[in-house]
Amino acid sequence: MKTAAIIGGGVIGGGWAARFLLNGWDVRVFDPDPQAERKISEVLANARRSLPSLYDKMLPAEGVLSFHDDMADAVAGTSWIQESVPEQLDLKHKIYAQIQKHAPKDAILGSSTSGFRASQLQDGALNPGQIIVAHPFNPVYLLPLVELVPSPQTPASVTERATSLLTSIGMKPLVIRKEIDAHIADRLLEAVWREGLWLIKDGICTTEELDDSIRYGFGLRWAQMGLFETYRIAGGEAGMKHFMAQFGPALKWPWTKLMDVPEFTEELVDLIASQSDAQSGHLSIRELERLRDDNLVGMMRALKKSGSGAGGLITAHEAMLPDPEPVDLPVTVSRRIPQSWTDYNGHMNEANYTEASSQATDRFMEMIGCDAAYIASGRSYFTVENHIRFLNELHEGDELTITTQVLKAEGKKMHLFHRLTGPDGKLAATVETLLLHMDTNARATSLPSEEVSAMLTAYADAHAALSLPEGAGRHVGQ
Length: 478
Ligand SMILES: NC(=O)C1=CN([C@@H]2O[C@H](COP(=O)(O)OP(=O)(O)OC[C@H]3O[C@@H](n4cnc5c(N)ncnc54)[C@H](O)[C@@H]3O)[C@@H](O)[C@H]2O)C=CC1
Ligand SMILES: C[N+](C)(C)CC(=O)CC(=O)[O-]
Prior knowledge:
single chain; alpha/beta; Rossmann fold; N-(1-d-carboxylethyl)-l-norvaline Dehydrogenase, domain 2; Thiol Ester Dehydrase, Chain A; 3 domains; eight-stranded mixed β-sheet; six-stranded antiparallel β-sheet; 16 helices; 42% helix; globular; binds 1,4-dihydronicotinamide adenine dinucleotide; binds ligand L46V6VHR
């Protein structure tokens, strides 16, 4: 029942297609470009290797992608239609007239427009209330922000539905309270871009030096704290007021040329294009995309640990994803192998088997009530011994399932056996692990609470009927 139409499948439409597909939606693309299918399949390949790497849980099964020459076929029965045609208002109006002739009345029609206001887009439309600005950021499949801009004519119910739907595909809808040309983020980006063009035109720096001034410095700060939280810290202990008092007056000095636009002469365009070629021309666009995506995944996974910004959002989205179907043993991990877990031998690195089994142990601890609240109360389990058997290779993008069997639960001891299975249910590894219950304040072993003990014993009793797994109790050199 979850079907989206992508109208215009270029850089941004392709990214939207990947975001919807990898979150389990069927996607229909309408784009007259004969190369659209090839381009989208390349974007999709990059999305498949990066987006699942953000999650420690499986995303829903991928939806079905289809291409359509007929607008009526593309939009019939859809609940979300995303327009991403070039940034020309008359073209967007023409497309809306075609879409709205055939689209379900209650489908949401989001526009990727970087600069037009929702009321400009709605002007002359058959069903204006259906149209809303949904402005994403490239790469749409990885970056969560989407500026959601209603006009005064947009019913609140449309904005609310759009918010909940975009949240369900892992995005961060930022509802803009008052429509304005270029929303919020593109105003900031344009200001930086315009200033950058001046600095290059005036021979102050090259494209590479300008990029260095961002990526070695404030770019790193912005990804996790934005502008104002960063500046609050820059005010020192005296805080934001002190920061404003110190740097506010500088705004009166003519540091910037923000209101002038350098003329786009052939000379300026050639200067920037040749500097950009010198900087990055040795890599293809797809290679650059993969480099960008790997870096984004690494940064977002780091933010996931602290719960900051985009990282906290991934954790919240993960909590909305369905748990795996129960089998005779509890499934404690169901995820894909991220690119970052593979090594120079072209397969999953040994260290990451420990990481995966540690995720399985953490999940099993939660299942018996040893959750964050229990741990905060000063009680937990510590691992004291592991034995790993590597039986089959695992590769980037493979589905990984871990089941957990309790071999013994006695007093402070919890003895578990994790089976790691890869594609086609093939056993890839086993990890036998012994844990002891601890008083984390005393840093000494202790007995678990009655509740935890009862839940653990229930699993142990159920698993006692199962035969001892092959390989249990094995030691190195046996
Ligand atoms: N490129 C970027 O960084 C961002 C662009 N946007 C916005 O997204 C929209 C699309 O931009 P891009 O994807 O960059 O452009 P693009 O040029 O990569 O893609 C536009 C696509 O629309 C298709 N198209 C042209 N006429 C069409 C029609 N009549 N019906 C269906 N498809 C048609 C083209 O064949 C092309 O594949 C614009 O409104 C832009 O402002 C938003 C965020 C970022
Ligand atoms: C350059 N741009 C205005 C098309 C940029 C955007 O709209 C957002 C982005 O992804 O940078």
